Amino acid sequence: MSETVDGLLQQADSETAPPFNAYEVAALIESFGYNDRAVGRFGFSDVFALGEYIFSRCRQQPVSGPAEASLHPAGARFRELGSAMRKLSASLAYSVPWMALLALEYLRPKDLQVSPQLGAASTLALIASLIAAGGFVQMISRSGTFYFGLQEPVLARRSCVLLMNLGLIASLFAALAGLIVGLYFHIFAGVYLVLAAATFVTLSLLWMLCAVLSAQGRSLYIPVIFVVSGCAAALVKVLAHSETSTVLMIGVLVAILCALGCGVAGFYWTEKKAPGKDLSAPPRLAVMVLSLLPFYLYGTAYFSFVFADRLVAGTAIPWAYGLNFGIDFAYKRGMDLVLLAFLITAALVEYLSDFFLRSWFKLAAQPYASGDGVLSANLRTRHRRIVIMILVVFLLISFVAGCVLGRVAGLFSSRVVLETAVLGGLGYLMLSVALFESIILASLNSVSPALRAMALGLAVNLLIGYGLSHLLAVQYAGAGLLTGSAVVLWKCNAAVRQVLRHPDYHYATA
Length: 510
Description:
Helix content: over 70%
Mean pLDDT: 81
Largest sheet: none
């Protein structure tokens, strides 16, 4: 037992995190073996009076964690830069193939020329793979990151492999169901349905492997993998003069092999650094699946929402074209531009949301340094600034991309392209902000409000987009994206504002 109040203050500071109020300090003092009689020698009437005094002393002392106090400002900046690179690379990994194909389409359109049926089947397979694998990607990322954070690489490997197997089985059943439906309704010719099914399964596997690398903290490998696979596909195209469909399939297979090799090597090295972890008891399958189910549903709903307008536009193609599904060329060009801006902005949103949450937790760990209501006001100010930054970045990227592509390819020579870009751009602009709100909610274990908002927005997106695109013109499928994004943003923003009214409570339950 300490003989002075200063000694007691040092003991309390070494035993616990910064106290929230004087009652917490009083309870801590009693846990040290002091009662009202024992604290009388310090000149205080009871434990609560001493707790008030020590808590007031704590409020006067500047607080900084030992790691942060010893970290040089230059080291802090490099650490923040490293965090930004990891977040950006993980999110841009899914944007790199899209951006590469978009650039190739405008700069060398002859290299991507395929038959209308093959193009429609491949597009549908790509969209379906992102939707089908999106939920499993969320589950793998969440589970893998959790176990790696606990320094349990064996459990991380087991959970990731289990979820990948479930995702692959689900993809195979979905591909088989798609083949049966396509043959029954004569959506495409048999050979194109088989190619679409193979593309769907391989792409689904690729997205899940990328999620494993992201969970391992090796997000920087993902862009490199896509660059290597792209170079391999280009080499096959030049040397063998193969068809475009063959070249694209080879590129996907090379990417899968590279991602699989990197994932296996990553698990090997992490487990080698942590021997003896193979004795850790794995969680029960039912418990793990049920705990990750909301993230699966959110991931599926999110990717369904992003591509709902394209699915609707694909069904609005005139029957005179001889296709059951095909996206209008003018609609595709207008929507590709704003989707490019959204994908790049989404990568920035991933980092900004992580930065916002880290700053929140840093402030919340020091409640007496902020005072009552100050934490909430501080977070609302930061939240507002980040939202403005997202809006500015999206508009800037859209403007630059529009100027470049408009000059190179005459992008806005058609009224349909311009109307599509405006409707889709406003929709993706609101969706970018809604994504920021959704990540905050998911990180605070409040994914249910984000899931409900995304499900409601998806229903609005499909209903309005389908109705207007069939009644008026195909470009009005973007109106569904616009109204659906407004609904998602409205609901998610309301949930986040409610959270920011009581940040200390949500910090404690996160």
